[in-house]
Amino acid sequence: MKRDFLSLDDLSAAEVSALLARAKILKAERAAGRRHPVLAGKSLAMVFEKASTRTRVSFEVGMFELGGHAVCLDREGSQIGRGEPIADTARVLGRYCHGIVVRTFAHSRAEDLARAAPVPVINGLTDRCHPCQVLADLMTVNEVFGDLSGLRFAWIGDGNNMAVSWICAAGLLGLDLILACPPGYRPPADAIAAARATGRGRIEVTGDPARAAAGAHVLSTDVWASMGQEDEATARAAAFAGFAVTSELFARADPSAVVLHCLPAHRGEEITAEVLDSDRAVVWQQAENRLHVHKALLELLLG
């Protein structure tokens, strides 16, 4: 029976741990020049209705290194842009390919695609959540600290798809998570309620970035205006004043703390260049780890 990965809670805590462990092995084997073509003869369709750098390249390279092949479709280069229903596209792609990655706007669109597709569907990003990115983030934190337990995670900025995926991770893995978001930009209440209902972890939402940063081991942030929100950029910049990850804010964190950013970053807005380019920012390691967790995920779902 096929399995989709639309949200982090489509995996169990044990599966997340196993996937991160496998990604670590794949990373080491790649560095040693060893590859395992476990997906030889298999193809991955990538439906990108939102622009991409890291998601596209990491999945495409990942499929190649696993012995498979990836085909990328954007709106302008496919019938999707001319109004073909996403379910029809899913039915066709499922007859050609062994899996589908979708990067789109409304989460319901990814759900519609998954319902119609006869093959596994992976959420490469929706407006609701970004689970692949948080898997890479968790891998990076694990590499830096050796474990996820005993750490305090802080999210600074918009209660967006990344915040929702961190909330999901907190409920699934029992993380201590605090999110600092301005009024009107807090994470969806249902996401917080669902994570708290697991009885694991601790989730707090505050309007005070200094409170969130205090004693944190991991500070994460993202752009204030995501793709599709460009017309809100001026209003958002005003609302998020004081929520930038600066050296002064970072100084409140634990002495061992690191900074994450899913990229691309707007230096001087949500994060200063001084912080982003410091040795405490592990964003390039974080970006690289997209490749390794995607390979582990492809093995799990397509292998």
Description:
The chain contains 12 helices and 9 strands. The relative contact order is 0.15. The chain has 303 residues and is of the alpha/beta class. It has a 5-stranded parallel beta sheet.
Summarize this, please?
By secondary structure, this protein is an alpha/beta fold. The protein has twelve helices and nine strands. The mean pLDDT is 96.
Count the E strands. Answer: 9
Overall shape: globular
Query: How is the main sheet built?
Result: 5 strands, parallel
* Helix amount: 40-55%
Mean pLDDT: 96
Assign the structural class, choosing from mainly alpha, mainly beta, alpha/beta, alpha+beta, or little secondary structure.
alpha/beta
- Spatial gap, N to C terminus: 12 Å
As laid out across the biggest beta sheet, the strand order is 7-6-5-8-9
Strand content range: 5-15%
| Cα radius of gyration in angstroms | 19 Å
What count of helical segments does DSSP give? Answer: 12
List low-confidence stretches: none
Spell out the helices and strands N to C: HEHEHEHEHEHEHEHEHHEHH
Present the secondary structure layout.
Elements: H1 13-31, E1 43-48, H2 54-65, E2 69-74, H3 86-96, E3 99-103, H4 107-116, E4 121-125, H5 131-145, E5 152-156, H6 161-173, E6 176-180, H7 189-196, E7 202-206, H8 209-213, E8 218-221, H9 233-239, H10 247-250, E9 258-261, H11 273-276, H12 283-302
Parallel strand pairs: 1-2, 1-3, 3-4, 5-6, 5-8, 6-7, 8-9
